[in-house]
Fold each of these.
Amino acid sequence: MHEFAPTTDAAKPELYRELLAAADALTAGEPDAVANMANLAALIWQFVPRLNWAGFYRAVGGELVLGPFVGQPACIRIPFGQGVCGTAAASGETQVVADVHAFPGHIACDAASRSELVVPVVRGGKVVAVIDLDSPEPARFDAEDAAGLEALAALAAARV
Ligand code: SME
């Protein structure tokens, strides 16, 4: 099977370039969205350190519904506009949350989560999914993480 591994101690931009290349190789030519989301969630988990949850919520019938992920079992349905995920989905904008306890309406799925990054997956001008990363570390995510995940979301848009 495919073997992808991040370069140990790579700087963030390089790590995200490696993640994107692995994601491209793993999903190229595969039309099944669930299979691709499952592999992308696994790759994020493998490449991005210090996470306790990584995965997808899909836009289905006007709300977000849990998709493939790595981590603790999570909330299944999130209305657009609610929580960090619903805010990203409703606005179409990446959410970098340094302290989830300070985010109005944050939905706690795993009590260990302290910071969160949510990136919308946009196809044809519509949010079709979000990629959600949680960390047990406060302020875990910065602009480089956001840019790396936005590049991954752009790739995912055509493959999930
Ligand atoms: N914290 C998210 C909910 C999803 S879980 O973190 C997996 C939110 O506020 O939207």
Amino acid sequence: MAEKSYSVAVAGATGLVGSQMLACLAERDFPIKSIKMLASARSAGRTIQFRGESFTVEELTEKSFKNVDIAFFSAGGAVSKKFAPIAAADGCVVIDNSKTWRMDPDIPLVVPEVNPHAVAGYSKKGIIANPNCSTIQMVVALAPIHRKAGIKRIVVSTYQAVSGTGKAAVDELMEQSRAILESQPIEKKVYPHQIAFNCLPHIGSFLETGYTDEEMKMVNETRKILEDDGIAVSPTTIRVPVFYGHSESVNVETVNPITPDEVRSVLEKAPGVKVVDNPSSNIYPLAVEAAGRDETFVGRIRKDTSVENGIDMWIVADNIRKGAATNAIQIGEILIRDYL
Ligand code: 3JN
């Protein structure tokens, strides 16, 4: 019998994440019967190449999801908020990349290497949430340590690539870098400050507590995915002049002792993780090497000598692939394998 195949839609098909979703669907041979490329009215009419065929981008409307089995959404929070429930009411399962539904207790928040069982919860509202990029790569690396030694507290600083903001920010870094090297004045359109040759301790919007909403995503989403509200998380999220690949300096304090060698050995067996850790040969994870890959790379694994049970490490992944598109398609793969 022929393999079952599905009607798929990609909402936000012309964006950075949407186009990567299409690339991942093709690369991973997702069984597709038909595909709709959806975007705003502004992008409607454009053509997109997919698996050697040309597709015309359609405007996303209330009627877009009739007879669609699975829709991958990456068109911004407002679109997700309005259209995910409409799609779900039409019997379509939505895998949503925005923050809109992530903390809804009736909507699963899934990282396939960590909590694949949670996909089952899709049936409540017909929506599955894809976590924030910085959270995904952190929990892929930390879940195996949590299972082995119990994580009590995480202190994390991120070094996030401009692609996390979107195409305009990628252009802004390129243009500012060129302008500065040519001693020309820079233009600031996306970020409040110069991003070229700079670091901005500011991602998202500031809350009354002094944290940003991006930082609070890491706190709340980590607890939901690891299914442990007792984990303390203190994040600082930083934008750096890197195009692709988020890096994270992560300190964890565990309940039970665990040595750096034990961490390496647990992570070497962990799904989706690649240990890159030979500092004496200058080998450690690098954003430029993680870009274009789907693994989460971990290195600089060492004992934090300032506490009894502490480990420090450096975690890097492609924010557009594992941090967004790949993770969403992997969720789709579990969905069709076990549920649809
Ligand atoms: O800036 C980054 O590197 C990640 C950006 C994430 C982001 C930016 C705007 C809106 C999100 C997200 O995925 O958490 C959202 C959102 O979901 O609403």
